[in-house]
Automatic annotation (TrEMBL):
Coiled coil: none annotated. It comes from Faecalicatena orotica. Keywords: Lyase, Pyridoxal phosphate. GO terms for molecular function: homocysteine desulfhydrase activity; methionine gamma-lyase activity; pyridoxal phosphate binding. This is homocysteine desulfhydrase. Belongs to the trans-sulfuration enzymes family.
C-alpha cells in the first residue's frame, strides 16, 4: 500500500469544495478570463494573486498542480500542454545561449531530437552524452559552462537506472541544475526532489492520466524562484499551459493511480517471470527482476516498478516482428500507461550506429517493448504464449 500522505494528496488535497458549491468533484473551469468588481481591483490583482487570464493560470489546472507538488514533495508545480512542452520549458529556464548540457544517453528520444534540431543549432548549446551509470565519468564531462544535467530513470528500451542521489551530488558540487523525467515511476514509486534533483518532469498521458485520453506534462521544483521563472516567464509568455479539460481528466486519472500502478506492477512481475523462463526468450529487461544489472540501486531508490518491460528473443531479430504481429490482446502502438496492453519493436529500423550509441548490438534490434495493462496476467501470458508458439 502506498503511503498515507500520497493517498490523501491523490484523493483530497487542493480541492476546496466550499468554493465550488460543495461539488464533490471540482468543475472544469472552461473560461479564458476572470472579471473584477472595479478597475482598482483589476489593477491590484497581482498582489492578491487572483486569476486573471487563462494563459497564466486556471483553477482546474491549479488543483492538479497542487496535487503534483505534494506528491513530489516540491514547492511548486507548473502544468504544460505536453510532456515535451514541459521538458523544453525546463531547458529554456535553466540554459542560455552557449550553455553546455550533459544528457543521459538513454533519455526519451524527442528530448535528444530537440537538443539536436533546436538547442544546438539555434542557441549554440553543446551537449555531452553520459551512460547514466559511471559517476566518475559524469564528473569528467563537466565543463566550466555546464549548466544542466538531463536524466531519466528508469530509462526507455533497456530500463537503465541512474544513481539519482549520486548524480545530484556531483551536479550540486559544481552548481549545475539537474532535471529528471520521472514518468516511469510516477511520484508514488520515486521522489527525485528528495534525492537532490532540481526539476522533475511527468508526462500526464501515461500513468497519471491512465486512460490514454490526454496529452499533458508537468514540472515540479523545490526552489520557489525557479518555479516563478518557469511559471511567469517560460509558461506564461511562451504560452504552453495545460488545457482545463485535460487538467480535469488528469485529476480524475490521479484519483485511482495508486491502485492502478500496484496492479500494473503485479501483472508485470508475473509476465516478466513468465518471459524470463520461456525457452525462446534470450533476455528480459525489467526493473523488478533480480537479474537487472542494477537491482541493488533500484531497491535503494525505487519503491515500486512499472508495467513496462522489454525482451529479446533468441535467433533472428525478424522473429520479433512475427511475434508482435501475432499478438491478439496486446495492441500495437507507442505510448503506455493506460488500461490497455501495448507492444512495439521500437529498435527494428535502427541503424548500426544508432544501436551502438545506445550500447546495443544488431541482435537487440529485435527488442520487443510491452506495456502490461489492466487485462490481468493470465490473459497477457496466454496471449504471449500463443504468439511465441508461432515463431
Ligand atoms: C511519453 C513520454 C514523454 C513525452 O511526453 P508527451 O506528453 O508525449 O510530450 C516523455 N518522457 C517519457 C518517459 C515518456 O514516456
Amino acid at each position: 500500500m502506498q503511503n498515507k500522505e500520497d493517498r490523501l494528496a491523490i484523493t483530497h488535497l487542493g480541492e476546496e469544495q466550499s468554493k465550488y458549491m460543495n461539488a464533490v468533484v471540482p468543475p472544469v473551469f472552461m473560461n479564458s478570463l476572470h472579471v473584477f468588481d472595479s478597475l482598482e481591483s483589476y489593477a491590484s490583482h497581482q498582489e492578491d494573486q487572483a486569476y486573471v487570464y487563462g494563459r497564466a493560470a486556471n483553477p482546474t489546472v491549479h488543483i492538479l498542480e497542487e496535487k503534483a507538488a505534494a506528491l513530489e514533495k516540491g514547492a511548486a508545480a507548473i502544468a504544460f500542454s505536453s510532456g515535451m512542452a514541459a521538458a523544453s520549458a525546463a531547458i529554456l529556464a535553466v540554459c542560455h545561449a552557449g550553455s553546455h548540457v550533459i544528457c543521459m544517453r538513454d533519455v526519451y528520444q524527442p528530448v535528444k531530437n530537440i537538443l539536436n534540431r533546436y538547442f544546438i543549432p539555434k542557441m549554440g548549446i553543446t551537449v555531452s552524452y553520459w551512460d547514466g551509470i559511471d559517476l566518475n565519468r559524469l564528473e569528467d564531462l563537466i565543463q566550466d559552462n555546464t549548466d544542466m544535467i538531463l536524466l531519466e530513470s528508469p530509462a526507455t528500451f533497456v530500463f537503465t537506472v541512474t544513481d539519482i542521489a549520486g548524480a545530484a551530488r556531483v551536479a550540486k558540487a559544481h552548481g549545475i541544475k539537474t532535471y529528471i523525467d520521472n514518468t516511469f515511476c510516477t511520484p508514488l514509486f520515486q521522489k527525485p526532489l528528495t534525492m537532490g534533483i532540481d526539476i522533475v518532469m511527468h508526462t500526464l498521458s501515461k500513468y497519471i492520466g491512465g486512460h490514454s485520453d490526454i496529452i499533458g506534462g508537468i514540472l515540479v521544483v523545490q526552489d520557489e524562484e525557479l518555479g516563478k521563472l518557469i511559471r511567469e516567464t517560460i509558461r506564461e509568455l511562451f504560452g504552453g499551459i495545460l488545457g482545463p479539460m485535460e487538467a480535469w481528466l488528469g485529476i480524475r486519472g490521479l484519483r485511482t493511480m495508486h491502485l492502478r500502478v500496484e496492479q500494473h506492477q503485479q501483472t508485470a512481475m508475473e509476465v516478466a517471470d513468465y518471459l524470463e523462463h520461456h525457452p525462446k526468450v534470450e533476455r528480459v529487461y525489467y526493473t523488478g527482476l533480480a537479474s537487472h544489472p542494477q537491482a541493488e540501486l533500484i531497491k535503494r531508490q525505487q519503491s515500486g516498478h512499472t508495467g513496462l518491460m522489454s525482451f529479446v528473443l533468441k535467433g533472428d531479430p525478424e522473429k520479433a516482428v512475427k511475434a508482435v504481429n501475432s499478438l491478439n490482446v496486446f495492441e500495437i502502438g507507442c505510448s503506455w500507461g493506460g488500461f490497455e496492453s501495448l507492444a512495439l519493436c521500437p529498435l527494428i529500423n535502427y541503424k548500426k550506429e544508432e544501436l551502438e550509441f545506445l550500447n546495443l548490438n544488431g541482435h537487440d534490434s529485435g527488442l520487443i517493448r510491452i506495456h502490461c495493462g489492466l487485462e490481468g496476467a493470465d490473459v497477457l501470458i496466454g496471449d504471449l504464449e500463443q504468439a511465441l508458439e508461432k515463431i
